[in-house]
Amino acid sequence: MKPKIWLSSPHMGGAEIKYIQEAFDQNWIAPLGPNVNNFELDLENYLNHNSKVTALSSGTSALHLALMMCNVKRGEEVFCQSMTFSASANPITYVGAHPVFIDSEPDTWNMCPEALREALEDRAVRGKLPKAVIVVHLYGMPAKMDEILQVCEEYGVTLLEDAAEALGSTYKSQKCGTFGQMAILSFNGNKIITTSGGGALVSKSFARKKRAIFLSTQAREDAPHYEHAEIGYNYRLSNVSAGIGRGQMEVLDERIEARRANHRFYSELFSEIDGVEVLTEPNSDYFSNHWLTAININPEVAGFSREDLRVRFERENIESRPLWKPMHMQPVFEEAHYFGSGHVAEKLFDNGLCLPSGSNLTDAERARIAEVLNKVLV
Ligand SMILES: *Cc1c(COP(=O)(O)O)cnc(C)c1O
After folding, report:
1. Which PANTHER family match (predicted)?
2. pLDDT at 14
């Protein structure tokens, strides 16, 4: 069996070990310390737009804190893009709220502004607007931010951004993760940069950053003993993990360029094949980090289906994966409301496939991928 080609695997830059060594040398093996502070500073400088960053144990915990800080209460609603990873929606249930799922649109595969408007209008008529809207930049592709911000503003609803897959992506030259009142990032092992496991909450004020630190370190009041007036969480990133993050920030631009080169490789590979669309920026307002390159196959035109291609890859020990299964189709969310008359997310799930997109993909691996495709086509 040939060695496995992964969808997306960790890719160290070299300096990570230096920062970890520093943590060991200074005995900062705690969920605080200079690596955490400096990793946050690196991210703040990178994102700009007055971003205040709190480093946390995961993107999921960051979203949980964001919802708490939006004051989402039990029984209230939060709107969320349906086509996404479950971590975008699970935290809604952690605070006892109900997710309402919104369809995608065909250009970016992200939240459809019209479906969002329809859903908000429906709730406005009932006098029950959601506490927040969660938009996701899937696979690194920025959502239609102008339209989505406009709709949220019209209805006076808070926008949260799930930028877990989109660090380094921009919309009209502004970084993803800086549009919403708050945003989350993820540094899980498969993301564009990793801390082995970790995430961050991006907000716009020092007060919010302080609040996130407070809640993520067990809500300890200012006292010499342990005093608690609120329920807290153990969500802070460790100083060792943050050392990996500092090293990864040094190579982030290279990682983005490598992922974008993968996207160019696939775009060329599929350019001659009718019936296969490669997810690509709709126009020059959009810049995707192309975390994963994803395709949408029309089986009637292409002559092969998503499953045909996936199984062929699997036989050659090449990992590929169907697009995210929309949340409104998941058994766990079968009770949730859904707005989407276009059924865009369902169709993308039927016909979409994510392709190996690691920044460490080699020319030899690309050749193996191209070979499988040639076999499928004959
Ligand atoms: C990875 C991911 C998350 C969650 O991040 P974790 O750090 O794994 O908790 C959230 N949303 C999306 C879209 C993701 O891809």
Report:
1. DTDP-4-AMINO-4,6-DIDEOXYGALACTOSE TRANSAMINASE (PTHR30244:SF34), TRANSAMINASE (PTHR30244)
2. 87
Tokens 């592709």 label which residue? 141
Task: Provide the residue type at 278 as one letter.
Answer: V
Q: What pTM did the predictor assign? A: 0.97
CA–CA gap between residue 106 and residue 366 (Å, rounded): 28
Which tokens belong to 55? 């480093």
Please write the tens of the pLDDT for every residue from 80-96.
Answer: 999 999 999 999 999 99
Q: What is the pLDDT of residues 120-175, one digit of tens each?
A: 999 999 999 999 999 999 999 999 999 999 999 999 999 999 999 999 999 999 99
Backbone angles phi, psi at 282, to 5 degrees: -65, -35
Residues with Cβ within 8 Å of 185's Cβ and at least 6 positions away in sequence, in order, are 43, 59, 62, 163, 164, 167, 177, 199, 200, 202
Q: Which atom of ligand 1 is nearest to the CA of 58?
A: 7
H or E element: which one contains 295? Answer: strand 293-297
Mutate to test the pocket of ligand 1, among 186, 187, 190, 323 (most ligand atoms within 8 A of CB): 186
Could you tell me the sign of the dihedral formed by the alpha carbons of 44, 46, 47, 50, in that order?
positive
Distance 375 CA to ligand 1 centre (A): 34
CA distance 247 to 151: 39
Q: Return the closest-CA partner of residue 200 out of 184, 216, 211, 178.
A: 184
Chain region(s) in the chain for CATH 3.40.640.10: 16-252
CA 354/CA 140 separation, integer angstroms: 12
Distance 371 CA to ligand 1 centre (A): 32
- CATH class (in words) of the domain with range 16-252: alpha beta
CATH label, 253-377, candidates 3.90.1150.10, 3.30.565.10, 3.30.230.70, 3.40.50.1370: 3.90.1150.10
**Segments of 142-223 assigned E as strands:** 158-162, 170-171, 174-175, 182-186, 199-203
Listed residue (288, 289, 292) closest to 252, CA to CA: 289
Residue 101 exposed, middle or buried by CB count within 10 Å (0-12, 13-18, 19+): buried
How far, in Å, CA of 142 to CA of 174, rounded?
A: 10
